[in-house]
Amino acid sequence: MGRVASRSVTCASMASRIARTASIGAPSGSATGQSIAGAIGGAVLANAMFAEPVVRWSTHDRSAGHLLLGEVVATAGLILLIFGLARADRLHFAPVAVASYIGAAYWFTSSTSFANPAVTIGRAFSDTLAGIAPGSVLGFIGMQLIGAVVGLALVAVVFGRPGSRTADDV
């Protein structure tokens, strides 16, 4: 079961990343749809590779308050990391930094760090340790939106507002 869970997350992430890469220059709604399709496709592929039914809805209820709080923390941290790298002119480290953060946040958050609505939707398609019951998806996405706002507020607190630097800061 654990092997299927990790493979499902990996395949969903890869498929979602391929879909996002293919959507460069596309309208954001199209990119969102492609990310969701990629995440679902990755979960279906992982299920098939491990001789599971291609769609096996997750039964892992993730509606408890501590899990929702964990998702706020996971998403806020991810937003802070990405925007912090951009503010520090270190965005070229984003691929390894984001992968490292998500890998670590899987273990240090109670929610196992979905931190992305497309990934959340995709993980509903596989009944593995990393899955999420369809009934818990909207709550997680709501907490991700709150986490994004918290993360952006943290960016403003930690790095200041864009253009608010003085000559002494440079």
Topology of helices and strands:
Blueprint (H helix, E strand, L loop, with lengths): L1 H21 L5 H22 L15 H23 L6 H15 L8 H7 L10 H26 L11
Helix pairs in contact: 1-2, 1-5, 2-5, 3-4, 3-6
Main structural class: mainly alpha
Structural domains: how many: 1
Largest sheet: none
Query: How much of the sequence is in beta strands?
Result: under 5%
Helix content: 55-70%
Span of the ends, CA to CA: 52 Å
- Low-pLDDT sequence parts: 4-8, 18-27
Rg value:
17 Å
From the spread of the alpha carbons, the general shape counts as globular
| Contiguous helical run count | 6
- List how many beta strands DSSP finds: 0
- Arithmetic mean pLDDT: 85
Instruction: Provide the succession of SSEs.
Output: HHHHHH
Describe the structure.
The protein has helices at residues 2-22, 28-49, 65-87, 94-108, 117-123, 134-159. It is built from 6 helices and no strands. Helices cover 67% and strands 0% of the residues. The longest helix has 26 residues, at 134-159. The protein has one domain. The chain is mainly alpha-helical. Residues 4-8 and 18-27 have low confidence and may be disordered.
Features:
single chain; 170 residues; mainly alpha; 67% helix
Provide a short characterization of the protein structure:
By secondary structure, the protein is an all-alpha fold. The protein contains 6 helices and no strands.
